Amino acid sequence: MKTFILVIFCINIVAFDNTEWNNIIYFSNNKPEIISPEFYLSRKKQFTSVIELNATLSLLNSKKYGNSTACNYPLRYTFLKSQYFNIPTYNLENCKELKEFTDNFKNNELYLAYSSEYISVPSSAFGHIMLVFKNKDVPFEIAKTIHFAAVTNKEDGFFTYNYKGLTGGYKGYYVLNYFFKKLYEYNTKEQRNIYLYKLNFSDEQTKKIIYSLYELRKATFKYYFFNKNCASYTTKLLNIPKNKLYKQKNFYLPIDTLQQYKKNIIDKKVFLSLIYKIEYLYNTLSTNDKKNLKKLFDIIQQLMTI
To answer: Residue 247 — pLDDT band, cuts 50, 70, 90?
Structure first.
C-alpha cells in the first residue's frame, strides 16, 4: 500500500508545474529569495523547493493544521489543489482574516502605474513602478496600490545609503497604500507624472496576485537598487498568474516591467504633476488673462511683504 501511494505521489510530481510553484514561493536558482523564515513552511535551515512542497502538502493533509494552512497560504493551497494532489477541500470563504484582506480588492481593474524619474533619490532615478487595483465603481484616488519598497534609515549619509542599496543592506517589502497618497507623494511633493496602463488580466489571474499578496504579508526581502527592486518584484508578482519565467538581469528597471507586459496593456491614463497642470492651464489663457494674472501675483507678493 505504501509503495502504491509513493508511485502515485511520484506521478503527481512528474506532472507538477515546477515553474509556477517556484514563482509562488519566490525561489530563484533553487534558492529562497525571502529572508523572513515565517514565509516558508519547511523548518530546515537548508531546503529546496521540493522540500518546501513536501512540507506544505504535509500540513495541508494534517487534521490539526490543514485548515489554518489553507487559510494562511491560499495561493499555495489552490494551486496544489489544481495540480490534483490528494489533499482535503477547505472553504476559503470561512477564513476570516483572508476574507477581510480580499474585501479590499473588490470588482477590480488592474493597472501598472509608472512614476517618472526622481533624480534626488538614486533608487528612483529611473522612475518607480506600482500595481493599482481599481474598483470599477470608485474614483482612482481611493484605489489600492501595491509597490515594493526598501525601508531605509533617514540618518544614513550619502555613502552609507548608496553602499547599503548596492549590497542588499536594506530590507524590502510589498506595501499597501491608497492611490491618493501616492498621488500626493509623486504628483505634488516630488512633481512627477504618473502613467497608468490598464492590463487585460482576468479576474482569476488578478485573484492569484491578491492571494499571493496575502501570503507575502509574512515576507521580507533584501533590497538591491539595480536588480532586486520595485521593478523586478512587481514583475515577479505579475509572472505568477501568467506562469512566466523571470529573466535575471544585472539591471532591472521599471521600463523592463512595462516592456514585458506591453502586450497586455489595453488602455492608458496619465496624472500630470502639479507644475505641469499649472503650466498647461496657464498656456490656455488669453494674452489679456495672463497680464491680469501677473498683476494679481504682484498684488499678492506686495501684501505678503507688509
So the answer is: confident
Grid cell listed for 304? 505678503
- Of 106, 142, 118, 105, nearest to 194 by C-alpha is 118
Considering the entire predicted model, what is its pTM? Answer: 0.82
Which among 54, 207, 198, 47 is positioned nearest to 113, based on CA atoms? 198
- The three grid cell numbers given for residue 228, joined into one nine-digit string: 532586486
List of residues 6+ apart from 81 with CB closer than 8 A: 87, 89
Instruction: Give the H or E element holding residue 119.
Output: none
Element (H, E) at 32: strand 31-32
Burial (CB count within 10 angstroms: exposed 0-12, middle 13-18, buried 19+), residue 12: middle
For residue 286, how many other CB atoms are within 10 A of its CB? Answer: 8
Positive or negative: CA dihedral 254, 259, 131, 68:
negative
Report d(CA 41, CA 226) in Å as an integer.
30
Q: Judge contact between 192 and 247, C-beta under 8 A.
A: no
The CA-to-CA distance between both ends of the chain, in Å, stands at 94
**The C-alpha cell that represents 17 in the structure block:** 508545474
Long-range contacts of 245-253 (CB under 8 A, 24+ apart): 245/19, 246/23, 246/28, 248/28, 250/226, 251/226, 251/227, 252/226, 252/227, 252/228, 253/126, 253/127
Q: What is the pLDDT of residues 34-80, one digit of tens each?
A: 999 889 999 888 889 999 999 999 999 999 999 999 999 999 999 99
- Phi, psi for 120 (deg, rounded to 5): -70, -20
Outline where 141-227 has alpha helix (H).
158-167, 179-182, 203-215
Cell numbers linked to 267? 488602455
Decide: helix, strand or coil at residue 247.
coil
